[in-house]
Amino acid sequence: MKTKFDKIEYFQSMDKWFRAANYLSVAQIYLRDNPLLKEELTKEHIKLYPIGHWGTIPGQNFIYTHLNRVINKYDLDMFYIEGPGHGGQVMISNSYLDGTYTEIYPEITEDTLGIKKMCKRFSFPGGTASHAAPETPGSIHEGGELGYSLSHATGNILDNPNVIAATVIGDGEAETGPLCSGWFSNSFINPVNDGVVLPILHLNGGKISNPTLLSRKPKEEVEQYFLGLGWKPHFFEWSEDKTNIEIHQEMAQTIDLVIEEILEIKRVAKLNDATKATRPQWPVLIVRTPKGWTCPKEWDGQAIEGSFRAHQVPLPVSAFKVEHIKELEKWLKSYKPEELFDENGKIIDEIRSLAPLGDKRMGSNPITNGGINPKELDLSKWQDFAIKLDYPGQIKGQDMVELGKYMADTILKNPTNFRVFGPDETKSNRLFALFDVTKRQWLENYSEKYDEWVSPVGRIIDSQLSEHQAQGFLEGYVLTGRHGFFASYESFLRVVDSMITQHMKWMKKSLELSWRKDYPSLNLIATSTAFQQDHNGYTHQDPGLLGHLADKRPELIREYLPADSNTLLAVMEKSLKERNVINLIVASKQPREQFFNVDEAKELVEKGYKVIDWASNIKEGEEPEIVFVSSGVEPNLETLAAISIINSHYPDLKIKYVNVVDLLKLRSPHIDSRGLSDEEFDKVFTKDKLIVFAFHGYEGLIRDIFFTRTNRNLIIHGYRENGDITTSFDIRQLSQMDRFHIAKDAIAKLYGEKGKSFTDLMDKKIKEHNEYIHEYGYDMPEVVEWKWKNINE
Amino acid sequence: MKTKFDKIEYFQSMDKWFRAANYLSVAQIYLRDNPLLKEELTKEHIKLYPIGHWGTIPGQNFIYTHLNRVINKYDLDMFYIEGPGHGGQVMISNSYLDGTYTEIYPEITEDTLGIKKMCKRFSFPGGTASHAAPETPGSIHEGGELGYSLSHATGNILDNPNVIAATVIGDGEAETGPLCSGWFSNSFINPVNDGVVLPILHLNGGKISNPTLLSRKPKEEVEQYFLGLGWKPHFFEWSEDKTNIEIHQEMAQTIDLVIEEILEIKRVAKLNDATKATRPQWPVLIVRTPKGWTCPKEWDGQAIEGSFRAHQVPLPVSAFKVEHIKELEKWLKSYKPEELFDENGKIIDEIRSLAPLGDKRMGSNPITNGGINPKELDLSKWQDFAIKLDYPGQIKGQDMVELGKYMADTILKNPTNFRVFGPDETKSNRLFALFDVTKRQWLENYSEKYDEWVSPVGRIIDSQLSEHQAQGFLEGYVLTGRHGFFASYESFLRVVDSMITQHMKWMKKSLELSWRKDYPSLNLIATSTAFQQDHNGYTHQDPGLLGHLADKRPELIREYLPADSNTLLAVMEKSLKERNVINLIVASKQPREQFFNVDEAKELVEKGYKVIDWASNIKEGEEPEIVFVSSGVEPNLETLAAISIINSHYPDLKIKYVNVVDLLKLRSPHIDSRGLSDEEFDKVFTKDKLIVFAFHGYEGLIRDIFFTRTNRNLIIHGYRENGDITTSFDIRQLSQMDRFHIAKDAIAKLYGEKGKSFTDLMDKKIKEHNEYIHEYGYDMPEVVEWKWKNINE
C-alpha cells in the first residue's frame, strides 16, 4: 500500500530531519556560539574543550528518523532505548526537533538562542551528559556501563501489551556478556500480555579503537546467529553507491516489513489464549552504516568516516586550536543548515510535521517517565501473615517460606503490576507458596512430565540462569512504575553489584529533575546466604554486597537484616511501600528458631533496632556491664545462645542485648541523615562498656560505623572469609561467629585471667563440636536442639 | 581406519569405565561405609546428610570416558574443564579410575578402604567440594560461580599450541552472560601459536528446577546459533532406543570427527605463517543426554531421570530416613560393581587399561597444575624507565604512558609468556608504547585502511568489549603459570569484582594443598579512574573495588595507589614479581605533575608509605601540629597544593606529609599481618594530632582502617558519590577532595573561629573556580598551572 509515508517527497523531508539531527549533534560537540553559522566560524564560537562522541550518532539519527516514520504510518506506541554507550546528542537532537525538548526545558527555546544554549551545555559542567541519561527526554536507559539494553527493554514492556521498545544496540555493546545473554529475553515475552522488544543492532564497525566482532563476521554468520537465538533477522545495509533518498527508501521498506511482522504476530496472538502462546519469531533489525557517517572521510591521510577514528571528536578543533576551523565549518555546512532552520533559528515546518503527535513522540512517551498508568501496590498487612509466638524460640520456621505466603497474596492482589525475578532460584529460595498462585513465564517448549510450574503466563520469570537478566528485568520493570523483587543467592548478587550501582546513579540524577516521576523501590532479597551455604561451600559465600552498597548514596540505600520470619515480613511490607530506594534484604531460608512477636518485629523495623528485654537482665535505665549486638539471622541466634551460656555461668553479669535490623541507621547522621544521633547511640550502646557485635557481613563495615562513635570497646564477629563445605554450625565456627567463640571472647575481654575456667570450657566445646562434625558430618544435637530461656525471668 | 579403539570390545570396556565412574559418583553422595556393596546396605552405611549433585554427572562421565579414548587414539595433550556448577564427583571418580587420585592422595588407596574414605569425605566437613575445585586433580576451573569456562579455557591455551582444552559447558551455564560472550573467544585464538578450545555443550535439559533454554530450542536453531558464532556444530544425541554399546559407538564416531577436524585445522595452520592466519571454523560438540541418566526413572509418580528432579540427590535416603534404602541399593547395583572391582576393591585391569598414560591422564596434565614449563618473567629494572626529576613537580607526565614503555620492554623480553588484556581500552588507557612492539591478536577480518594495530598475532587481546572476557583470559593465563595484566577503566572492574573474588578463593584453597604449584600474581590496573572521568561522567566513576578487595583475605590482596610515574613503575615491577596475590593498581593516565624521584619511589613502594620531607617542615623526630596524608594521584596533588596554600598563610604551622602507596599496610597487624604495628603507626601519624587524609576511594575504608588505631582526630576527603560531566578539577571539588576544601577543613578544625579569614578565603576560591568552570567548561589557570614549592626550604 502506497501511502504518503512512501512517497519521494516524504523521504526528501525525512532526509532534512536526518540532516538537521546530524547538524545539531555536531554543533553540540563543538559550538558555544553562532550555532547556525549565521556568521563565519571563529575561535569565539568554539568550545574550549569539545567533548562528545560522534561515531554512533548519524546511524542512530537515521534510525530515529525512520522510527518516527513508522510511528506515524502505523500509529505505534513506541519508545527508544539507546544502548550504545555514547551519542547523547541523538535523543537530545531528535527530541528538540519534535518539540519535546523545549517543552521539558523551556529555556531551550526554538530559536537560535535556544540552540546556542543547548549546544553550550552539552557535555559541559552542570550540563547534559554525553550519553543518554536521566536528563535526556524519552530516555529510560543510561548509556554508561554497557550491556543492559535488552534486559531493560524486556522489563519495560512486560505487562504493557501495546508498547514497542525500539532498542538500539551498538556493536560494541553486543560483545558484552550481559547483552549476549539478553537475546534470550524472547523466551520470556508473552505475545498476548506483554509488549514488544524490537532490537535494532547497529553495526558501524568500530569501538573506541578496535573493530567490532559482529561487523566483521560474514553476513550469513550474523544471520545464523540471530536465527539460532530465535529472532528473524532483517538487514539494512548502507552503500555508498546509493543516493540519500534511495537509502531512505530502502530503510523504509525494511522497517515496514519488520513492523508489519510485529503487528501480525500481535494480531494472531490476540486471537488466542495467552496461556497457550508460544515464542513467536520476533524480528530483529540489523542496520549497517559507516561509523561517523557524513563526517569528513579522511583526516591527516587516515580514514575517519567508517573508522574507529570517528568514535569521539573527529576533527581536532577547539578554541585553543583553530587552525582547522575551516574544515569544521565545511563539515557543518555540508548539512545545509540554511535549508533546515528559518531566519530565527526555528526548525522549518516541513521537518516538524514529521514528528509524531503528543505522547507518541518518543521523547515524551509516558513509559519513559515512570510508566503507563503506574499504580501503587495493593498490599495486605504483613501482620496477617505473621507467626504467632507464645514465647521467643518457641518454634522453628523458614523465613523465606513465610515470606512466600505473603508474596503469593501480593501477586493475587496485583495481577498485572507485580513480578518476581530470579536465576532459577525461586524454588531453591523456598518461595514455595508462589507456585500455588502462579507459574514461571516461559515461551519455549516444555513438558508436563519433566518440568514443573512453567507456563506461557506467570508472574515469576526465573528460567534463565543469569543474574544480569533477573536484575535487568527488575530494573526495567521498576523504572516503568511497577513493583517486584529479585531473590538471589546472596553471593551471586555480587555478579550484578555494578548494575545495582548504575540503577542507583539513575535514581540519584532523576531525583534532581522536577519533571521526572519517582520510582517504586528496587528490592533485592539476598538469601541462601554465606552462613547457609554449608552444602555449596566457599564459592557460594560472600556477604559483601552490604559493604558495596553502604559506600553509595545513603539516601538511596537501605540494608535490612531481619533475624526471623516476622521481622522479614515487616521489612518486606516497608520495602515494597518505599520509593526511590534500593532495599537489600538479607533473609534466611533454612529452618531457624523464631524469636520476635508481632510487636517486637514492628518496633525492630520501624526503629531499625530494639533492645530485647527478654535477652537483657537490666532494669529500665540501668547501665549494663556488657552489650551484645547482632545483625542477621545466625548472628542473632548465636548471640542469644552465647548470652544464655554466659548467663548460666555468670547470672549476675548485667547484660543488654540489641538486635539491629536496619543496619545503616547505626551510622552517624553526619554520614547518613537517617542515622542515630550520638546521644541515642550512646544511650543504646553505652559510652564505654564492652560491645560484642555479631554481624552477618564483613567486619570492616562495623568498624567503619563505629569509628565516629564514642564507644570503641568493641569485639566484632563477622564473616571471616573461611569457607568450606561443612555443616550449618561449622560454617559459623569457621568465622568464629558461633556461640562458643562469642561467649569466650566476651568473657576473656571482661574478666581476663579470671575468666579462664570459662574460656577453657568454651575451647573444649569448640574442640568437641569440631570433632563431632568431622566424624559425623552433622551438628551435635546440643546446637541443633538448643532452646532459648528468658534470662530476665 | 578401524583401530582397536573402534572395536566392539573396546566399547564394552569403555562401558565398564562409564559404569564404574557412575557407581563411584553415586556412592560418594550416599555412602560412608560398605562402598562396594559387599554386604546388604544398612543404615550404618549411609551418610547422615547425603549431599551432592547427580544430574550433570552421568553425562559428564560419558564425555570423560570418550575423551580418554581420543587421547589414546590420537595421542592428544588434553585437559578437562568442568563448567557445570556441580558434579565434583566426575573429576574425582575418573581420576580415581585412571590412578591419578591415589597418586595425589595416597590415603585414598586402590581398594575398598580407599573407596570408603573417598566416599565419606565427599561433600563432608573438611573434605572435598561438591564441584570441581582446587582439591580436585586435573581441575583448573572452579564450578561455583558460573560462566567463565570458555574464557578460562582460552586463557589456558594461549601460547600453548599443542594443548586442547576439553571444555564442558552445562546448559545452565550456557545461559549466563559471561558464557554467552565467551563463544566469541574463537576470534582471538591463533591456530598456529595457540592451543585449542573444544567446547562440549552438555544439554541435559534441566537446571535447579527449571528447563534450560538451549535444550528446549529446536535442533536447527542450536545449530544456527553455533554457525553464527563461527563454530561448527557436531551433535551427539542420546536415544533410549539404542543399546549402551551403540551409544558408545555413535559418540565415538562423532568425537572422532571432531578431533580429526581439529587436527586438520592445526596441520594446515602450521603450514602457514601465523601472521597470515584467519579464524578457523573450530568444532563444537553438543552432547544431549538425559539429566541424571541411569538413575531411577521415576520416584513417587514423578519423572526423575531426564528431569530437573535429578539435579541434586535424587532418592530421599539418609541414615535418618532409610525406608527406601532398597531402591538405593537397586540403583547402585544396576551398575554391577562386582564386574568392575576385584575382591579387594581394586578397579579391574580391563578398565584401568583404558586410562591414558602418565601425564596424558587429564587428572595430571601439567597445565592444570601451574602450567606447562612456566617461567619466571624476565624483567628489566623499573629504574631504567624512570623519569628524571631535579625537583618535585618539575614536569608533567602521563603515568600510563610511562608504564607502557616498561611493559613494551617486558613484552619484548618475554615473547611467549606475558600478555596484556582489556576491553578495547589499551589505547584509551594510553599504553601507546605497546603498539610499537606488538599488536592486538584478532583473527577476524580487518582492513589496513579503517583499523589500527590488529593482527592475527599479538601480545595484546583487547578487541572484545567485555570485562568478563578480559578477566577470564587473564585468570586462565595466570593459572597456567604465565604472566600478564588487565588494564581497565576503574569503574568497570566492578563488572567483574565477583570473578576476582572467585580467583582469590581458588588461590586460597590451592595454597592449602602441598601438591598445587603456586601462581603468578593477577594484576589489575584500574585507570581512567573516578577522578579522571570528568568527560564521561557519573556512570564511569566508582573507586569501590578498593573496599571490595579489602574485605577479602589480606594475605592474597595488595592495593597500590602510586601517585606518579616512578611510583607506578616501581609498583609494577614488584607486582609482576610477586606470586599468589591479586594486585590492584590504581593508576593515572592523564598528564599530572611528577613528584617522586627514584629513591623516593623505591622507598614508597618497599615500605608502603613515606614521610615526604620536602612537603613537611618538621625536623627529624619533631612532632607536627598537623599530619596530611594522601593515597592516590589526585589526593597527592591536591594535598600538596593544600599544604602549599596553608604554608603560605601559616608559615610557622608544623606540617608533616605522608604519602601512602601500599594502602593495606595501614591496617592493624591483627587484621593484616603486613600491617604497621601500633607503635610505628603512632610514630608516623601521631597519637592525637589532626590528620587530614585525602583518599582516592570511599571514605568508609579509611574509617575502618583507623578504627583500631589510637588517633581518631581524622578528617577524610574521599570520593563522595557526586558525579557529573565536568572538568578535571571540578570532579575533585564535587567530592570536596580539592586543595581548597582540604585546606579549609584543616584550618577550620585546627583554629576554629580564628581561622575564619582563611576559611572565608577558601570559600571564595571555591566559588570563583565554580563560576569559572561553569562559564568556560575549563579549569582556571591557577590550578592547571600550579607549581609546587618546597615548604622545607
TrEMBL record, chains A, B:
Residue ranges occupied by any Xylulose 5-phosphate/Fructose 6-phosphate phosphoketolase N-terminal domain in the UniProt entry: 9-372
Top-level lineage group: Bacteria
Keyword rRNA-binding: no
Co-factor requirement: thiamine diphosphate
Segments forming domain Xylulose 5-phosphate/Fructose 6-phosphate phosphoketolase C-terminal: 589-788
PANTHER family named in the record: PHOSPHOKETOLASE-RELATED
Family statement drawn from the similarity comment of this UniProt entry: Belongs to the XFP family.
Protein name listed in UniProt: Phosphoketolase family protein
